[in-house]
Specification:
Elements (H helix, E strand, L loop, with lengths): L23 H8 L3 H12 L3 H19 L4 H7 L5 H12 L3 H9 L1
Helix pairs in contact: 1-2, 3-5
């Protein structure tokens, strides 16, 4: 388990690394809560589901990888936790309005 980092209000600060276990169960464990309690508190405080938040984080990391590295789209997908390049492509397109390849090309221009 990664070390806990608390701010002055007792909130746990965790920054999942690339390839880290981003499951709700793992995040709840790091926060020291049950899954149900973690999901309830997270949704109440942020106004979004844990899954929505994790998708946003994954897409931000993917965008960085697409613009800053020469990794293939499949490799980027794997690094942000997708087992399927096509599932990653759909999620990326929904989040950014562009395919990963088009995003990379437009960022390089």
């Amino acid at each position: 388990m990664p070390p806990r980092r608390h701010d002055r209000h007792g909130r746990v600060r965790v920054r999942p690394g690339r390839g880290a276990d981003w499951s709700v169960a793992h995040l709840a464990q790091v926060a020291g809560m049950s899954r149900a309690t973690f999901v309830r508190h997270f949704s109440h405080r942020t106004g979004m589901t844990v899954g929505t938040f994790l998708t946003h984080v994954r897409m931000m990391i993917a965008a960085d990888l697409l613009t800053e590295t020469d990794l293939t789209v499949a490799a980027v997908a794997a690094k942000v936790g997708y087992h399927s390049e096509s599932a990653f492509g759909r999620a990326f397109r929904l989040a950014s309005g562009s395919t990963p390849a088009r995003f990379r090309r437009s960022s390089a221009a």
